[in-house]
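A.,

Following up on our hallway conversation. Structure tokens first:
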């Protein structure tokens, strides 16, 4: 993927930007934060319809990532996406819409009720237990799992955004607005933060390791030698 003029393209130059969103706000300063959301809906197209609704004060977001890893951009990265809420705050920042890129993940959100073996979503659809993360939190009993391919797409696009904009932190909507519970406990926030911000571990292939690194098996010999030397000095 690449970003040209604040819009996302696949490597083959296919545009991932969907034209026609009436909810795009005015330009913002270069974004400092990524804010992760869940859509709390049943389909990615339903979420996109809501986020591009022409109704007054409709929320929107920069990106929507489907459960199949598909990415759709609805707002240029240099424009206000109205995804975080005007009263959102983080550290000294107020109205996080002015400082962030909003990323929506297609996910049903929380579950409060079981029907037989299945979990019933807030919009009445039933989900298999295999898709549900049972963890009581914030007044809810369980949460929709994210898919590995969806999280991989999020990781890839987040790395590209970090390379393009002065992104300092990745936050959840729940971090910046206390009334929100997305992306919730099923989202692996710490893993994503480590993948994006921790320096990569130094790793060598075996052949390189033999050349460049003193092999650990030799270590006790050195220690014993030093130990004996210090003993003899004392003695
Ligand atoms: Zn949200």
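Then the amino acids I'd put at each of the 235 positions:
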């Amino acid at each position: 993927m690449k970003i040209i003029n604040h819009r996302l393209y696949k490597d083959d130059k296919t545009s991932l930007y969907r034209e026609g969103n009436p909810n795009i706000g005015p330009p913002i300063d270069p974004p400092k934060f990524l804010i992760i959301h869940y859509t709390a809906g049943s389909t990615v197209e339903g979420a996109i319809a809501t986020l591009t609704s022409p109704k007054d004060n409709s929320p929107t977001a920069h990106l929507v990532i489907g459960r199949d890893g598909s990415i759709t951009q609805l707002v240029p990265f240099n424009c206000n996406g109205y995804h975080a809420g005007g009263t959102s705050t983080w550290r000294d920042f107020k109205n996080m819409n002015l400082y962030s890129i909003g990323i929506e993940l297609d996910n049903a959100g929380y579950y409060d009720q079981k029907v037989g073996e299945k979990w019933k979503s807030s919009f009445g659809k039933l989900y298999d237990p295999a898709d549900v993360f049972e963890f009581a939190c914030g007044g809810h009993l369980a949460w929709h799992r994210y898919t590995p391919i969806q999280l991989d797409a999020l990781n890839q696009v987040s790395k590209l955004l970090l390379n393009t904009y002065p992104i300092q932190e990745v936050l959840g909507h729940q971090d910046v607005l206390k009334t929100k519970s997305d992306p919730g406990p099923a989202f692996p926030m710490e893993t994503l933060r480590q993948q994006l911000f921790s320096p990569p571990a130094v790793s060598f292939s075996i052949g390189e390791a033999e050349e460049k690194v003193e092999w650990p098996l030799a270590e006790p010999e050195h220690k014993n030698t030093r130990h004996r030397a210090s003993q003899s000095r004392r003695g």
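The radius of gyration is 24 Å. Curious whether your intuition agrees with the design.

B.
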